[in-house]
Design goal:
- There is one protein chain.
- The chain is an alpha/beta fold.
- It has a single domain, classed as Vaccinia Virus protein VP39 (Rossmann fold, 3-Layer(aba) Sandwich), CATH 3.40.50.
- The chain is 39% helix and 24% strand.
- The chain has 10 helices and 9 strands.
- Helix 1 (4-13) crosses helix 4.
- The longest helix has 17 residues, at 15-31.
- 34% of the residues are buried.
- This is SAM-dependent methyltransferase.
Length: 209
């Protein structure tokens, strides 16, 4: 179990994770209208939230982990004092243009239907949910027994879970699209083509209907 500070330092020190974060932040910021508000769902230590606030977006943060939340309060203390970042105990405490969920936050959920129904009350019509999720088709994981053992589950149902303390779930995009309906539609999936098998993370953009 990492402390908030250990997780924060690891994420900033990892070139691969920094590159993923930069791509995710760029996509989110390109999609957000000027001055639009955003909820960072599963905000971790506030790295993304700080970037959104720095770009003029009022940012709400929801982070259920006490360790992460404590470090977020320290890392984003200036923004919190200025109220450009506001912590919320529940997503339902805000109404925003967009929700972002970076670095596999949604992989901790076994079923997303109830979550998308809740987020439909948070995201304004025409707004979006942008999620970075673990790619179940990533061939770099094929060296692990758990990946090979679940290939048929992925083909049959588009979903499998890895036995671990956190029980991480992996989902095919079609399963996520089905869970998001009728409140959201899957508008964009990144990467495509050969990148599909070569990237650990996939970005899914859901548009509020």
């Amino acid at each position: 179990m990492h402390t908030g500070e250990q997780y924060h330092e690891f994420m900033l020190a990892s070139p691969r994770d920094r590159a993923v974060r930069e791509r995710f932040q760029k996509m989110a910021l390109d999609l957000l209208p000027a001055g639009a508000d955003v909820l960072d769902f599963g905000a971790g230590t506030g790295i993304d939230a700080k970037a959104y606030a720095a770009n003029g977006h009022p940012t709400f943060v929801h982070e259920p982990s006490q360790a992460m939340g404590d470090y977020l309060a320290q890392y984003c203390r200036d923004e919190i004092a200025r109220k450009t970042i506001v912590t919320v105990a529940s997503p339902l405490a805000c109404k925003v243009q967009a929700v972002t969920a970076n670095f596999a936050v949604l992989n901790h959920f076994a079923d997303h239907a109830a979550l998308f129904e809740e987020l439909s009350r948070v995201v304004r019509e025409g707004g979006f949910v942008l999620a970075s999720m673990l790619n179940p088709y990533y061939l770099g994981d094929a060296r692990y027994g758990w990946w090979r053992a679940n290939v048929m589950n992925l083909v049959r149902s588009g979903h499998y879970a890895i036995e671990s303390e956190s029980r991480i779930h992996r989902f095919a995009p079609r399963v996520m699209a089905r869970s998001a309906a009728p409140y959201f539609r899957l508008e964009r999936l990144v990467p495509r083509g050969f990148g599909w098998a070569a990237q650990l993370y996939m970005f899914l953009l859901f548009r509020r209907i």
